[in-house]
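Much of our argument rests on the idea that a fold can be written as discrete symbols. This step matters because it turns folding into a mapping between discrete strings. The record that follows shows the chain in one-letter code together with its fold in token form.
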Amino acid sequence: LRVLLLYILSVGIYTPTMHAFQAHDVPYLVKNFTVQDGLPVNNVTTIHQRKDGYLFFTTFDGLVQFDGYRFVIYSVDNSPGLFNNRMIGSLGLSNGDIWILHEGGVLSRFTNGVFTSFFDESDPESAKAIVAESSENDVLWVGSSKGLFYFECNDFKQVQLPCVSCGIKAIEPTKHGVYVSDNERVYFIDAQQQRTDIAIPHISDEPLDIFDLSLTPDGTLWVMESSGFLAFRDNEFIEKYSFIADEEANALSVVQASNTEFILATFDEFYSLDTSNGQVSPISKPGRNNKTIV
């Protein structure tokens, strides 16, 4: 099974045009899948492809399995073990397990056709899953409303953190541990559960508002927060990249394009960063004026 999916939109699964592929002379089939083709709803939230080739889509009305020809829908109506159908995220492990994050803080594991759910949304005392990530060596980490957990021996174990009641805002696993943010601090937890605090410089009078963490292949840790992108190397602060705009920068994600070029995304713009000279340039969009940035 070889299927290329380019965009996930509210109208279903959509591949826009053949233009992007003509330069490479690759004969891709362009197809827009909707409820008329078997999807339960047109809003697809995430896509995961398992090693055996099957595609899995999370939606607000269940999990969908696709073999290239037909859709199989798993929901609370036909799948014991599911708490609700409203799925907002997914990730897969090398053993074929698929983990699904639901609205309400439930986390479900789909393995061998069976669902098992964790973090009971009906229990007010239970932790609510906020974010889930897996490391390269298949350790599953979960940030929750009541701290950090990892999955071991078919159950979740809690990691002791400096703020027990703090909700985890973002996590970034590595082979040797995990970077964690609870929106008041950023730190690294190693395999022995020893904590190393990451000192964040005082840049603004506003409190930290961290959206995400990302570790790029060159070893740079990026802290995405409302005022810009903070870069760290070997747990030491390097630089802040922010933008001149009336509104907040709302840093969203980072992708390393080359040894010195990074693509920075905010909630409404894309930028190219050249770390050899510190220059940040807007990625031009036809028909749009780009913001002025520094």
The first strand starts at residue 7 and ends at 9. The chain has a mean pLDDT of 82. The CA atoms of residues 219 and 278 lie 17 Å apart.
